[in-house]
Amino acid sequence: MRIAERAKTYWAFVLAASAIPTSYLVAMPCCGACAGCPMGASCFLAYPILVTLAIGAKALRSGKAFLKKH
Amino acid sequence: MKARETITRNRWRYLSFIAGFFLFVAPFALFTRAVYLIVGNTAEPTLHSVCFRMPIDWIFGGRFYSILGSSWFMAAFVFGVIISSVFIGAAFCGWLCPVGAVSEAISRAVPIPKRFRLRIRDTKLTVSMRYGFLVGFIIVAALVGYKLASDQLGSICCRYCASSVLQNFASALFGEFSAIEYWQSGAILSLVFWLVIGGVFMSGGRGWCLFFCPLGALSGIAHKVGAKLGFYRVEYEKGTCTGCNNCQDLCPMWAIKEDRTVERTLCVNCKECVHACSAYKFVRGRKVADS
After folding, report:
1. According to the model, what pLDDT value does residue B97 have?
2. With contacts defined as CB-CB under 8 Å, which chain B residues touch A17?
3. B25 is a domain residue
4. How far apart are CA B275 and CA B10, in angstroms?
5. Over pLDDT 90: what percentage of chain B?
6. pLDDT over 60 (residue B153)
7. Contacts of A9 in chain B (CB under 8 A)
8. Which of B127, B143, B184, B200 to mutate to test the interface with A (most CBs of A within 10 A)?
9. Domain assignment of residue B194, given as a range
10. Residue (of B129, B141, B185) closest to A45 by Cα position
11. For residue B53, pLDDT beyond 90
């Protein structure tokens, strides 16, 4: 149980730590042309937000039930 | 009645938040304006003048010349906040920061049932995510700073910054309508996470502070170090605890652990737990066992 809990926190840490660099890699080919893009840098923020919500939802009982269902 | 109680209980903190708005946000920015006046800086002070992100970005990206150059005040402010957190906890976040204040105020003002609000009760998980995002931020700062990747990040950083969104809101509100031009989907997404997801739909309304503020994360580390050294902190005493869990429900930073001790890296010394329960009190010195 303890190992599972630790794995959960390490997994959350790794996922969160990789979120911003990953979204940076996604945004990099555009070379900062965000002002001219209809996405306007939202691509940069979308992934970290999704990670936050996914980990948050998994931590909740209702979220767990929802994720099990789908 | 409940709203009135909340306002009465937190009156000094809410007054401090209002002061924080006038001290740091343009067109007022009284603190920054005063410093600029003293040092003879003719620039127009805004919330950007005390950017919470740039000096941390510079440090980890090896761009020390930026700190020593014209942006010295920005760097001095950020390091001042971090160093003060060693002695008085993350009091800037809990008492002055206008960004956290707005989202917390909206969270209090919007009456949504508790079951619709996200709250991670496992503080270890919250801490993992908070410092995970900080590490990600540092990795990108290093990649850009040491030219290991494209240096275009600097041009898009303000598009995912809640402080920027607040500043533009305030500028537009007080007559500078050109600030509205700033709105694009990145800023809108920041706004949505800061005020709607992080504000309304996260318990306590500090979702942005918890996960995306590098200054808050570093202040949390400083507070943990300070608490170990015996500086000002909130301490939990099991003896008077009735197990009502009010402390956990009220803490805007989700800093109360399952055993009701305080997670230092999350605590902003807001005093919510102190008001809610006599088991919590502020202490100094190293004699009391560290929670």
Report:
1. 96
2. 132-133, 135-136, 139
3. yes
4. 9
5. 57
6. no
7. 122, 124-125, 127-128
8. B184
9. 2-232
10. B185
11. no
